[in-house]
Amino acid sequence: MTDPIQFPPDFTWGVATSAFQIEGAATLDGKGPSIWDTFCRNPANIKDASNGDIACDHYHRYRDDVALMASLGVDAYRFSMAWTRVQPEGKGAWNERGFDFYARLLDALDEHGIAPHLTLYHWDLPQALQDEGGWLSRDTAHRFADYAWEVARRFGSRVKTIATHNEPWCTANLGHGNAQFAPGVADRKSAIQVSHHLLLSHGLAMQAMRAVGAPARLGIVLNQWTADPATDSQADRDLANLEYARSVQWFMDPIFKGRYPELALRAHGADAPVVHEGDFKAIREPLDFLGVNYYTRAYCSAEEPPRQPDSALGATDMGWEIYPQGLTELLLKLKAEYDLPPIYITENGMANADRLEHGQVDDRARIDYVARHLAALRAAMAQGVQVDGYFLWSLLDNFEWNSGYAKRFGIVYVDYATQQRTRKASALWYRDFIAAQRQGRLAASTM
């Protein structure tokens, strides 16, 4: 490995997954149905008419998957807990068989010296709570806080960090704004109200976990991007400002400033959320860390049809522009606007049209993507942004939500028919990159 990028000696290197995308075992050992189980029952919702019933069968193969992580030399593993596996109805009785699975997973990670980073919610709300209003109901925020309290009580001393939510923007806008994700609602006003209840649930969960007194660092994971005008026209600049306000600032301002951005509130008009007294006090509970997921930028054009970016690096298999410098620009912008805690890059990676040929997967496009984004990350850190770690998305090819199994984000190829895992070229590159960083660590520690 000859890459010249050098990160700090205590920098964390990890990989990430989520429960519904890899676990399978959809009805095993007392697990209840989630909104994604329900959403997948209508094949029209998923592009390849698939579901998450088996996925990567991680529920049975977790030991092998942890050994895979160890073979890459990662420090840390970010994963989510399936709420319905440990509390099938989202309230009431706890399912000990579900908690036992996560205890076994933590045991395996501990055996290999891999630090667990737990996410409480990665989009798989218990269907029983959805039947009672889901995230449109304030009561769901309180049920989420109860769930967070119990998980922190049981595992708060065994995990490095606990994130409340992963990408609440997606839950609100894709799940309730355009019906692209579960539960399949298409209503702008509902999406905006859901976003507030998600933020409220985050704050209440933070308070509940703090009350437990567990040593895990507590935070939230937000998907974020810069919003760039396609031209210097006033219309494009206004559109870019609004996009940033109703996406990034819409979640960051309540957490760090105790209010919603005025520009977005004016744009929402009568669809603005109902906010109760004391909500922002809860939402503003201090974070120990902020998780940032970055994949691409927003390119804002008021023209019809919209002007498209002239991307020198092309696009991923999701059709997302490859724009690594946007990560530098985003982190510097956040640093200028907010009093930030330490940051983890909790997701970064690309979907690629990978093929297994002669027992190998040559995904050099992914290697280039990751290398460029790591260079962009290091550039932001050199300008004063505190970033404590990087989690590559994803360890495994998996169920990619409404895209089904057609899109592959993993650095490990999964043959879904046989469940055989094959490390791609990117996995071996990442292994060697981490090893080179460790050599730098050793040199620094002996100077």
From TrEMBL:
Transmembrane segments: none annotated. Its EC number is 3.2.1.21. It is an enzyme of class 3 (hydrolase). PROSITE patterns: GLYCOSYL_HYDROL_F1_1 (PS00572), GLYCOSYL_HYDROL_F1_2 (PS00653). It comes from the Bacteria. The active site is at E347 (nucleophile). It holds the Pfam family Glyco_hydro_1. InterPro entries: GH, GH_1_N_CS, Glyco_hydro_1, Glyco_hydro_1_AS, Glyco_hydro_1_beta-glucosidase. It catalyses: Hydrolysis of terminal, non-reducing beta-D-glucosyl residues with release of beta-D-glucose. One of its GO terms (molecular function) is beta-glucosidase activity. Keywords: Carbohydrate metabolism, Cellulose degradation, Glycosidase, Hydrolase, Polysaccharide degradation. Belongs to the glycosyl hydrolase 1 family. This is Beta-glucosidase.
